[in-house]
Design brief:
Chain lengths: 324, 280
């Protein structure tokens, strides 16, 4: 793995939403990739697809509140060589259209990019109906599907660009709230390759999406206590970078995972499967504990459901204490 | 080998269907038998296709999507008789390690299939998506889709119908196999479709009707549908058919929707269907 400094800055100067990173990249793709088309189910503003729509009205398809039709249409549009990007909330991008994705996209190996905003608890006040916490699990189970959950605005921008250049179905998960933009524009991004953001031999922290920034904060808190954590951003959940997991776990002997998702079926489960088979390692999973969300501000919700740097620190210290 | 749609070719396709489902004691003969004339007409007389050089993208070609994928036997028979793959491969239908899957699929690479179907209600959306791409590519080609009448109970069909009318998709012609039957009984008993013509009209489609077992009437209706290109109105053909057509004991009943004939029933069926092109 490469040195952390090439990826991130620890003192970001601005905050942006990841969905805007998607919107910016989609606009870039409009110019660089004439085959890219975009479909949206009545959430153009929320998905930040407006700039693409204005620049390329002939390549933008408003389908209305009809997500099933959108996904199957996208599959059909690939026949002839187009690269469709669909946009709606994560809930409506997955659970509502699982059968359409399974048959028309994944099984049929169609080059559709399912781009999902407003994932997880950080959607906030809308509450549990919209706060999907099962989408990673649903998508990672599908053969042929690539699953990516970028960490900030810049990485979402990079990931959106990257998925246009791979053949096959992709689920790209991002969110609503603003968070620090800590990735450098120059950071290399490779689908399926984990990124080590901090080096350490005492405990491994593997995070994805919104929880990557919390994992970095946890790494900094632990460092103040003389504990050095290996902090890894697992932006690609499938295909999973098993090598990076085993390499780090074999040095630290302790692994904490962190994700804005149900504990049964998300990143933690995938990491545990890899370790169980290749390098059994004591683990803790920071995730939502088999329950639905509720209304509240993103910050309140992440605190109530235990998705914070402090909880990652606490789980890390537990593991270290057990080891001794 | 036939180069055009004829009743003799239809008879051979019907033999293929009953022999395929009999060989593996599974599959869906009823709906397959009811759509023979349409598929033979499309593939032998109507569609601009390159059977010998199948390409997934199908640029410059007409496309067909079977939304009610369970009637795969008729599609497989017609594809192979048209030269997409050897007719001998029909003998592998529904068997392990075959390209000729129970329901149409792309994973095994069977020429002629561009998307998996079987879970109902998705094919109209797929066809509309393909039609949008054809428009972007500036092609004057056509997209054809086929649906069961029972399949119209799926809500997604009506999402797609609304989209096509609103967006003036007039390079698609969708056929509905109106046999009035579904697995559990008649559509009237299971979930009534009421006035299908009025429904499609209300959704902004041009509604045409035809006798699904008359090659001549299919010829007429397809010409009429094609003439409406440029109108900005999508076209649906309500095709009157008999489930199980051509095998007397299978005709007009839902009971042969998804079961295969035994040896004696096969012999009975084949005695009613002339072998015209050579069995596979």
């Amino acid at each position: 793995m490469t040195d952390s400094s090439q990826f991130i800055t620890f003192n970001p100067s601005e905050s942006k939403d990841t969905r805007s990173g998607f919107g910016a990249a989609l606009l870039e793709l409009g110019t660089s990739h004439p085959e890219v088309v975009a479909l949206c189910a009545d959430l153009t503003g929320s998905l930040k697809m407006g700039d693409f729509k204005d620049a390329h009205p002939d390549r933008f398809f408003q389908v209305g509140i009809a997500e099933a039709n959108m996904i199957s249409m996208a599959a059909g549009m690939t026949i002839g060589g187009k690269i469709p990007f669909t946009g709606t909330f994560a809930n409506f991008s997955t659970g509502r259209v699982y059968d359409q994705i399974r048959q028309s996209v994944a099984y049929s190996e169609k080059n559709v990019k399912i781009c999902a905003s407003h994932a997880g608890l950080t959607l906030g006040e809308d509450g549990a109906t919209h706060q999907i916490l099962e989408d990673i699990g649903m998508m990672k189970m599908l053969p042929n599907m690539t699953v990516i959950c970028p960490a900030d605005y810049e990485q979402t921008r990079q990931a959106t660009l990257a998925i246009a250049d791979i053949q096959g179905p992709v689920y790209l998960r991002f969110g609503r709230p603003k968070l620090p933009v800590f990735y450098k524009e120059s950071a290399p991004f490779e689908i399926g390759k984990a990124q080590k953001l901090m080096d350490g031999d005492d405990v491994t922290i593997i995070a994805t999406g919104y929880m990557v920034w919390e994992a970095i904060q946890a790494g900094l808190i632990l460092r103040e206590q003389g504990i050095h954590a290996d902090v890894i951003n697992m932006h690609t959940i499938k295909p999973l970078d098993s090598k990076a997991i085993v390499e780090s776990a074999s040095r630290t002997g302790l692994v904490v995972t962190a994700e804005e998702h149900q504990r049964w079926g998300g990143l933690g489960g995938s990491v545990a499967q890899v370790l169980a088979e290749h390098h059994p390692t004591p683990m803790r999973m920071v995730a939502v504990d088999d329950r639905f969300g509720e209304s509240g501000t993103p910050k309140q919700l992440m605190e109530k459901y235990g998705l914070t740097a402090d909880v990652i620190v606490a789980r890390s210290l537990e593991l270290i204490a057990q080891k001794k | 080998m036939s180069t055009q749609a004829t009743p003799a070719l239809c008879s051979q396709v019907r033999r293929d269907i009953v022999r395929m489902v009999h060989a593996v004691s599974s599959g869906h003969p009823g709906g397959s038998l009811g759509c023979v004339e349409l598929l033979v007409k499309l593939y032998f007389d109507v569609m601009k296709i390159d059977a010998e050089n199948f390409s997934m993208n199908g640029k410059g070609e007409d496309l067909f999507f079977l939304s009610n994928g369970h009637i795969s036997p008729v599609w497989y028979s017609v594809l192979s008789r048209r030269g997409f793959f050897p007719t001998a491969e029909l003998a592998t239908f529904r068997k392990l390690n075959s390209r000729v899957q129970g329901h149409p699929a792309t994973e095994e690479g069977l020429p002629g299939i561009r998307i998996a179907s079987g879970s109902l209600g998705q094919g109209l959306s797929v066809g509309i998506g393909a039609a949008e791409t054809k428009r972007l590519l500036g092609e004057d080609t056509w997209v054809f889709t086929l649906h069961g009448d029972g399949e119209l109970q799926e809500g997604q069909i009506w999402e797609a119908a609304m989209y096509a009318a609103h967006n003036k998709i007039d390079n698609i012609i969708s056929f509905i196999d109106c046999n009035g039957q579904q697995i559990d009984g008649s559509t009237e008993d299971v979930l009534s479709l009421l006035d299908l013509s009025a429904k499609w009209s209300a959704f902004g489609w041009n509604v045409l009707k035809c006798d699904g077992h008359s090659l001549d009437d299919l010829d007429r209706v397809i010409k009429e549908a094609k003439a409406a290109r440029g109108s900005g109105v999508p076209c649906v053909v309500l095709m009157e058919t008999v489930m199980g057509k051509g095998v007397d004991f299978m005709e007009g009943t839902h009971k042969w929707h998804g079961i295969a004939p035994n040896d004696a029933q096969l012999a009975d069926a084949l005695s009613q269907l002339e072998e015209t092109e050579g069995d596979y």
